[in-house]
Amino acid sequence: MSIHPLLHTLRSQKREHISGGLYESLLYRMTYHSNRIEGCLLDPNTVRGILTRGVVQASEPVRVSDVLETCGHARALTYCIDTAEESLTDEYILHLHALLKMGQEDSGVYKTRRNVIGMTMTSDPKDVPAHMHTLLTEYTALSSPTFEDIVDFHYRFERIHPFQDGNGRVGRLIAFKECLRAGIVPFFIADTKKHFYYRGLHEYPTQPGFLRETCADGQDTVRALMTHFEVPEK
Total domain count for the chain? Predict the structure, then answer.
């Protein structure tokens, strides 16, 4: 199987430590927006400084947890790029969570306490292993996952909400990795679109098109970056 031009570019720029390229731009944009959706208070320039220069430079005091999770998200995203062709397994997802939440409580393990998404109930902790097994078995049986399949997996993963914290970020990272594996332009959700994203998740059982449209809009964001850096879609 040939490597998608986007994946090839990301890997080569990472390997060659290219500054100011697509890899660096996508790394800091996805990290900023995905963490911001979940309540991170760091501004874009602070996130860029942490990821490109290893410097925390901010006009106001910053939370240590925000810095840790900025580094963790970048570490997990890089892992997704490095391992894009690997099959999705329970162990892979747990490791991804461990990278995101490294050094923090409940890192790399499934939840032990109940949680919710807004007003929506999620899987009981005791049911998480079985629910994840079913989800992964059904998804990995697909020979060529489509964009719609990946969005559907994302919804079902978020509905299970297998971790105590970090579910949204891990779910979006998985979707990014699976798009790369399938040769599909990936998507990321901008913080400014989070209300559409949450509405899409909430209404998915009856109106799946809303979440698909929101994710497709996130695809256009990545396409714009690819066009800017002259990376072909195919």
Answer: 1
Give mean pLDDT, residues 9-24: 97
Q: Identify the CATH number of the domain in which residue 218 sits.
A: 1.10.3290.10
Asked if the structure places residue 234 within a domain, the reply is no
233 located within any domain = no
**Euclidean distance between CA atoms 76 and 111, whole angstroms:** 19
Q: Name every residue whose Cβ is closer than 8 Å to that of residue 130 and which is 6 or more positions away in sequence.
A: none
The verdict on whether 17 is a catalytic residue reads no
Block residue for tokens 């879609």: 233
Domain hosting 99: range is: 5-228
CA distance 24 to 151: 25
Q: What is the pLDDT of residue 105?
A: 80
Query: Which residues define the annotated binding site?
Result: 165-172, 197-198
Helix axes 147-160, 128-140, angle to 10 degrees: 170
The residue from 8, 131, 161, 195 that is catalytic is 161
∠ CA 128-130-131, nearest 5°, is: 65
Q: Which residues are annotated as a binding site for ATP?
A: 165-172, 197-198
CA distance linking residue 88 with residue 174, whole number of Å: 8
Q: Does a structural domain hold residue 169? A: yes
Mean pLDDT of the chain: 95
Query: The whole model's pTM is what?
Result: 0.96
pLDDT at position 2 is 62
Q: Do 145 and 135 touch, CB atoms closer than 8 A?
A: no
